[in-house]
């Protein structure tokens, strides 16, 4: 089980394939297994790096770690790329991972060749941010009442991806994800959603990027994508599936992003 100490945390990672480096950053529950199938498909052309974000799954919670931030998560990703000799890399982020990928472009431009940002939940840029959070908050509260943080993760993902998709995930992956409830509920939820770089910083991004929105996703994600594209010049690309196409449409996702990872639209 490979791991490396980065930014004061032991980070579990997986490498597949050969070729130009591509890093995948997971969102809620932070497990490398989110992208296992996608990584295997892309390993024919790329060196694919996936990892468990700090305090999630096999990246054990550091002693005394009681808070986190976008900057800390981004520093972890940058350090991992540098320590493994993979910088600069193309970075794909889903959900929270898309926020971290964007912050990489702003704060660690030397490690990013290009970025693909799938539905960053930058709730603060919405016209009605409270409305976008109400349903998620209700699902989390229901899960907490039923069985604490593990049940909250279960209820959260059933709300986000649907019962059928959640139940189809490998048992080991689902078990790891639900075991990350203390990190998700206790440290992460509500911490990253307010991320909002100023317009001048976004206008200064020089690396190419794309903002992806699922064809079945709520309109709030399209609103965020348009807001971000207007400030960066990134192209908005429709993707198959919903908020987590790596779970419900992995083959279609790979067909969509492969040319973007190569640097072509």
UniProtKB/TrEMBL annotation:
Alphabetized UniProt keyword annotations: Hydrolase
Keyword Cell division tagged: no
Keyword Metal-binding included in the entry's annotation: no
GO MF terms, alphabetically ordered: hydrolase activity
InterPro entries in UniProt: AB_hydrolase (IPR050471), AB_hydrolase_1 (IPR000073), AB_hydrolase_fold (IPR029058)
SUPFAM superfamilies per UniProt: alpha/beta-Hydrolases
Domain AB hydrolase-1 residues, every copy: 23-255
Name by which UniProt lists this protein: Alpha/beta hydrolase
């Amino acid at each position: 089980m490979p791991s490396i100490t980065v930014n004061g945390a032991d980070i579990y990672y997986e490498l597949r394939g050969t070729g130009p480096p591509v890093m995948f950053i997971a969102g809620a529950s932070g497990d490398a297994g989110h992208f296992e199938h996608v990584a295997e498909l892309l390993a024919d052309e790329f060196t694919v790096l996936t990892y468990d974000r700090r305090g999630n799954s096999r990246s054990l919670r550091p002693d005394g770690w009681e808070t986190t931030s976008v900057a800390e998560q981004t520093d972890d990703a940058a350090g991992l790329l540098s320590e493994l000799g993979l910088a600069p890399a193309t970075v794909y982020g889903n959900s929270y991972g898309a926020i971290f990928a964007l912050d990489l472009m702003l704060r660690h431009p030397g490690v990013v060749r290009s970025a693909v940002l799938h539905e960053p939940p930058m709730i603060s840029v919405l016209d009605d941010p409270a409305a976008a959070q109400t349903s998620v908050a209700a699902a989390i509260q229901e899960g907490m009442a039923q069985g604490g943080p593990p049940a909250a993760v279960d209820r959260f993902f059933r709300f986000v991806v649907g019962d059928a998709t959640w139940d189809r995930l490998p048992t080991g992956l689902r078990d790891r994800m639900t075991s990350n409830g203390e990190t998700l509920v206790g440290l992460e939820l509500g911490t990253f959603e307010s991320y909002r770089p100023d317009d001048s910083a976004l206008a200064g991004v020089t690396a190419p990027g794309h903002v992806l929105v699922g064809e079945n996703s709520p309109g709030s994600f399209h609103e965020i994508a348009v807001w971000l594209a207007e400030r960066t010049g990134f192209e908005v690309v429709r993707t198959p599936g919903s908020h987590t196409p790596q779970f419900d449409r992995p083959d279609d996702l790979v067909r969509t992003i492969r040319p973007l990872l190569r640097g072509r639209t």
